[in-house]
Amino acid sequence: MKLFSMLLLFLLAVPAVQAQDGNWKKLAEKSVAFKAETDKVSLTGNERSANWIKIKCIQGAVQIREVTINMEGGESKTFEPTAGLLSKGMATVPFQVPGKKDEKVKSIEMKYDSKGSMVTNKRAKVEILGKLDKD
Q1: Residue by residue, what is the 3-state secondary structure of 55-85?
Q2: Does domain 2-131 have CATH number 2.30.29?
Q3: Mean pLDDT of 87-103
Q4: What is the pLDDT of residues 56-84, one digit of tens each?
Q5: What is residue 48's three-state secondary structure?
């Protein structure tokens, strides 16, 4: 039974490990307000092709509460990041994009809280990064 459990854990971990390596491309950049907020980022052009999405903090500190990936075909999936507070240089774990293999991402919605204040900190900024698996 232990062997089966370990094998199952390994099989579930392999896609996440594969998503972390490789070349990530910047799909969008967003400045974060100094309050709890929900933002929707619509993607256009070639950057809509991705199998994996992650959010990276490039300035300040931000608490990502929820990420919803909306696909062209109408399917969507909501993720609750486990990373907690992101500071400059930190990123969420990669989220696997829902939908069919060749379907494009329509938009990404983020619920977050920016940490800090206007007086003492710059506004937080995040990048939305995407990765397309090679077949």
Answers
A1: EEEEECEEEEEEEEEEECCCCEEEECCCCCE
A2: no
A3: 89
A4: 999 888 888 999 999 988 999 999 988 67
A5: helix
Answer with the residue of higher pLDDT: 106 or 15.
Answer: 106
By the 8 A CB rule, do 97 and 86 touch?
no
What is residue 1's predicted lDDT score, i.e. its pLDDT?
60
Pairing verdict, β 124-131 and 25-32: antiparallel
DSSP state of 51: S
Phi-psi domain of 71 (left: phi exceeds 0; alpha: psi -120 through 50; beta: other): beta
Q: Quick check: helix, strand or coil at residue 15?
A: helix
Q: Which amino acid is at 89?
A: G
Cα angle, residue 71 at apex, residues 65 and 74 outer, rounded to 5° = 110
Residue 3, classed as helix, strand or coil, is helix
Average pLDDT, stretch 87-114? 89
Helix (H, G, I), strand (E, B) or coil at 124: strand
> From CA 124, how far away is CA 36, in angstroms rounded?
12
Kind and range of the H or E element at 37?
strand 36-42
Average predicted confidence (pLDDT) for the chain: 79
